[in-house]
Amino acid sequence: MSDFQDQEENEVLAHRFHMDMFQKRDLSAADEILATDFVWRNPQIPSELIHGPENAKKIASAVVDSMPDLRITHDETISKNDKVMIRWTIIGTAKKEIFGIPASDKPITLVGFDLFRIYNGKIVEMWQQFSVGCWC
Asked: pTM higher than 0.85 for the full model?
């Protein structure tokens, strides 16, 4: 298999993280795409929730529960070797407070980057940064 094919497969895995778990609300995807020792690196995520697919499911569930109309757009994807970076935009209404984002009746925009590291066909690590607002 060529490096290019590996990078394409890695991009598919990274896209599935957002599109399956959050957009489609298919939490079982975590078991398929995340390594058992997966680490979610985001300073806003409680430390007891950063390890493993089960905790990733808890985070995804909390996010989609708080923002039931959530829509994710992948604005840009860059991949090299075992890494994939996705620049994304989320638009939704935070009906409940979630990770420092207050509840509101008005839609909000979140923008961010996720950097995924992939090993043996599974996501093993993700570094995430996001902000409320848009890059207009």
From this structure: yes
DSSP summary character for residue 48? G
Side-chain-facing half-sphere of 115: CA atoms under 13 Å: 8
Query: With 0-12 CB in 10 A as exposed, 13-18 as middle and 19+ as buried, what is 87?
Result: middle
CB contact at 8 A, 82 and 72: no
Joined tokens for residue 127:
């570094």
Alpha helices in the chain (DSSP H): 3-18, 29-33, 52-66
Q: Which helix (H) or strand (E) holds 78?
A: strand 71-80
Residue 114 · residue 33 · CB < 8 Å:
no
pLDDT in tens, 15-70: 999 999 999 999 999 999 999 999 999 988 889 999 999 999 999 999 999 999 99
Domains of the chain by start residue, with CATH: 3-132 (3.10.450.50)
Q: How far apart are CA 98 and CA 86, in angstroms?
A: 22
Check if the beta carbon of residue 54 is closer than 8 Å to that of residue 61. no
Give 73-76 contacts, CB < 8 A, sequence gap 24+.
Answer: 74/15, 74/18
Q: For tokens 């493993």, what's the residue?
A: 52
